[in-house]
Design goal:
With 188 residues, the protein is α+β, with helices and mostly antiparallel strands. The protein is built from four helices and seven strands, in the order βααββαββββα.
Length: 188
């Protein structure tokens, strides 16, 4: 059995999926994963499909050094670079579909799933070579990645009943306490 970086509290109400050594850029995959973290499964799939159709963008919050600014990042409360990482999006869509199909046999409502945990790790770099001028050879490395996803069922929240007399405690400063003492007739 494969070990995940985080174990869920209620294992019966989650679905997990992971992929190793994906031949796609680690940096692009990390940004794409952070863009869908915490979203409902249906919304995440819709967002990723919009990115494939270039109707929405993945904001590059950490690894966006040379990318140009995109106007579409305004939807994500971000005013900076954005891209359409197609390979990363396709891998994530496959992974989400796999995790959703892992719910079969469990008592889980797929309409109520959200991405509770997603993590992207760097894998071992792939080595190739490129030939340069004057007979030199340089490294030509690829940066693959590992991805793990945990989908959990949303809990139904119940409001805590308000207790009588347990209102907000009013705190006063030393100055306010001293002024109150003087008003009451106490000496200074």
């Amino acid at each position: 059995m494969v070990k995940y970086s985080r174990e869920p509290e209620n294992a019966a109400k989650v679905a997990k999926a992971r992929a190793s050594d994906l031949r796609t850029s680690f940096k692009n995959m990390r940004e794409t994963a952070m863009a869908i973290k915490g979203l409902e499964l249906s919304k995440a799939k819709k967002y990723l499909n919009n990115v494939l159709e270039k109707k929405d963008v993945v904001p590059l919050r950490r690894f966006g050094g040379s990318a140009g600014r995109s106007n579409l990042t305004k939807k994500h409360n971000f005013y900076g670079p954005g891209r359409f990482p197609e390979k990363s999006v396709k891998h994530l869509l496959d992974l989400l579909t796999n995790a959703e199909s892992n719910t079969e046999g469990k008592d889980i409502d797929t309409e109520n799933l959200y991405i509770s945990h997603i993590q992207v790790n760097q894998a071992c770099k792939g080595r190739r070579r490129t030939y340069r001028a004057h007979g030199r050879i340089n490294a030509y490395m690829s940066n693959p990645c590992h991805v793990e996803v945990i989908l959990a069922e949303k809990d139904e929240f119940v409001k805590k009943p308000e207790e009588e007399g347990a209102g907000r405690v009013v705190r006063k400063t030393k100055k306010q306490l001293a002024a109150a003492r003087l008003k009451n007739g106490a000496s200074a």
